[in-house]
Here is the input.
Amino acid sequence: MSRNYAGLSRERIIVEALHIIAGRGLGGLSMRRLGDALDVEAMAIYHHFPRGKEQLFNAIAAYVTTARVVSGLTEGQGPPEAEEEEGSEEAPAEAAEADDRPWDERLTAWAEAYRTRLLAYSGALSLLMHRAPHTLGEEDTRALLRTAFSEAGLAEDDVPRAVDALNGYCLGSVAHQVRHEGREDAPDEAEALARFRFGLRALLRGLSS
Amino acid sequence: MSRNYAGLSRERIIVEALHIIAGRGLGGLSMRRLGDALDVEAMAIYHHFPRGKEQLFNAIAAYVTTARVVSGLTEGQGPPEAEEEEGSEEAPAEAAEADDRPWDERLTAWAEAYRTRLLAYSGALSLLMHRAPHTLGEEDTRALLRTAFSEAGLAEDDVPRAVDALNGYCLGSVAHQVRHEGREDAPDEAEALARFRFGLRALLRGLSS
DNA sequence: ACCTGAACACCGTTCAAGT
DNA sequence: ACCTGAACACCGTTCAAGT
Here is the structure.
């Protein structure tokens, strides 16, 4: 086989990797398998992720925490992945049109969207456990949450605590759900969503009182 | 080298595995390295975990969710690991002496102990993401939490939702903290604990109102 | 710049064998 | 029952080479 202009890109690699993770689990993702899926020798991936699998994992974690979920899978916007020195090719920022809904509706909407995203990439959930990507998307999110909690009347010192509590609740709820998936006593998605909302309402009520 | 009565046991293997995970991360745990640490050929481990690394991971997850933290590390009680057919050699059940403190104190005490345990084994946190061990310890815990929430005056249908919310919050808070560890803007352990308590109080207040 | 192909050290697991 | 040792298929990564 001669030359192969596979038209590889960070995003294509990440999306394909998420496909494999969805199908065979995180342990089923190998550089060679990923290469096969991309019609490329495994080593070609190293040209786009010079620091190898670790860097790919970081990029996936960044992608999962900032990509938009459109259909059943992916169709996200680029891999932000600022990661140390790199010049952070960032996503188009989504217009961020002023949202005039009350603070609790904004927080609820954000939380449910975040939950949906985490659930869509649940196979990669454990990657998020040890990687907190430094992306603009994350900063935007924190700003959004901080503003909402300020509007809710929280003391200045309490705002970052409330932001962390909400983040923790969302991540943990999805983890708890995925963790029990496939068990006979596991609730179905409808009940899981009901439970998520129940706890979310309680948390927001408790935080603002 | 002739015979080698290494005195291997499930518990010794698990504890040693957790040592390696603490030192080199989950990715640094290999059967061969684990064998070396136990002064044994890697293949000896398969006699105690016939289904290999997957079974070992399950056992570690079960251990982490039910072992007691004594000193800096481990010294937990045996690997419960009911796991499908197996006859569930369970831990001695810890006497479970009647606790007459009010419900919110009991829940707070449980949550903080759980957090401490998760933090002590934070390297194995991602193992918990896809494995929910079926142990007596877990059942005991759910019973304890259910009772407390019932005492708090929750409607019967709301009790399991509250239990899940609390579980999710604890797991997610630790995950969120570990995720940001080593980042320059990460809070220290004192502030992390303060944030955990802040969110926990809010959640309990919201759940019982 | 982008991709290949051979090579190296390491990995999980099986299987036959030892005591 | 408990452990060894060789073997096999697979893995991540490096490096020199091709275009």
Notes: Chain A touches chain B at residues 25, 125-132, 134, 158, 160-162, 164-165, 167-180, 183, 194-195, 198-199, 201-207, 209 (CB under 8 Å). Residues 2-3, 30-32, 42-43, 46, 52-53 of chain A lie near DNA strand D (CB under 10 Å from a C1'). The helical segments of chain A are 10-24, 31-37, 45-48, 52-66, 103-120, 136-151, 158-180, 189-207. The two ends of chain A are 67 Å apart (CA to CA).
